[in-house]
Design goal:
The complex is a heterodimer of chains A (about 110) and B (about 120). Chain A is mainly beta and about 110 residues long. Chain A has strands spanning about 5, 10-15, 20-25, 30-40, 45-50, 55-60, 60-65, 70-75, 85-95, 100, 105-110. In chain A, β7 and β8 form a beta hairpin. The N and C termini of chain A lie far apart (about 40 Å). In chain B, about 0% of the residues lie in helices and about 50% in strands. The N and C termini of chain B lie far apart (about 35 Å). Classes of the chains: A mainly beta (about 110), B mainly beta (about 120).
Chain lengths: ~110, ~120
């Protein structure tokens, strides 16, 4: 049973447009969510996080939205740049812990 | 930012041999390290949580005797795949963190294990 889902395995977006990556979760006990970005042959790197007491967190071009009632979060990248092309993982944990459950990832391709 | 070094990046071994993978935190002390396994097109699956100076906590379905974890110091954790078989072929990745709420995990670059 997959507790964190990223139903789109891939996404292509034109440079300069908005990229929206979606993540759904089933465990209502999750209270801390992160997005990680992964380039080939590298480990994932932290991108942005949000706790369950917020519904939005913004960092530069990256914004994460959390809809607790729908158990859904999304990552918005505006404007998208070719360097954003990577695999994006959504992760969630309980009790703000470090024991994260990861989604399967979405491969974003930003086309010049 | 903090760096986690993982070695080797790729290893090919014969069935029945053991393989050790190292995970080092280079510029911080990691009280906790995590080991994951990733199958193609699947998510990172947590295998075990490694705490310095104590036994690792394994996730359900992970064989403790097959995947030996040692966290002997605050900067080093090792994963040993014992008597490897072709079904153990996978991508293994470690992460390390220190501290509590809001802590970001720092990941190694992963190890691709191929068992012939």
């Amino acid at each position: 049973d997959q507790q964190v889902k990223q139903n789109s395995p891939s996404l292509s977006v034109q440079e300069g447009r908005i990229s929206i990556l979606n993540c759904d979760y089933t465990n209502s006990m999750f209270d801390y969510f992160l997005w990680y970005k992964k380039y080939p042959a590298e480990g994932p790197t932290f991108l942005i996080s949000i706790s369950s007491i917020k519904d939005k967190n913004e960092d530069g071009r990256f914004t994460v939205f959390l809809n607790k009632s729908a158990k859904h979060l999304s990552l918005h990248i505006v404007p998208s740049q070719p360097g954003d092309s990577a695999v994006y993982f959504c992760a969630a944990s309980e009790n703000y812990g470090q024991n994260f459950v990861f989604g399967p990832g979405t491969r974003l391709s930003v086309l010049p | 930012g903090a760096v986690v070094s993982q070695h080797p990046s790729r290893v090919i071994c014969k069935s029945g041999t053991s393989v050790k993978i190292e995970c080092r935190s280079l510029d911080f002390q990691a009280t906790t390290m995590f080991w994951y396994r990733q199958f193609p097109k699947k998510s990172l699956m947590l295998m075990a949580t490694s705490n310095e100076g104590s036994k690792a906590t394994y996730e359900q379905g992970v064989e403790k005797d097959k995947f030996l974890i040692n966290h002997a110091s605050l900067t080093l954790s090792t994963l040993t795949v014992t008597s490897a078989h072709p079904e153990d072929s996978s991508f293994y990745i470690c992460s390390a963190g220190a501290g509590w709420v809001g802590e970001k995990l720092f990941f190694g670059s992963g190890t691709q294990l191929s068992v012939l």
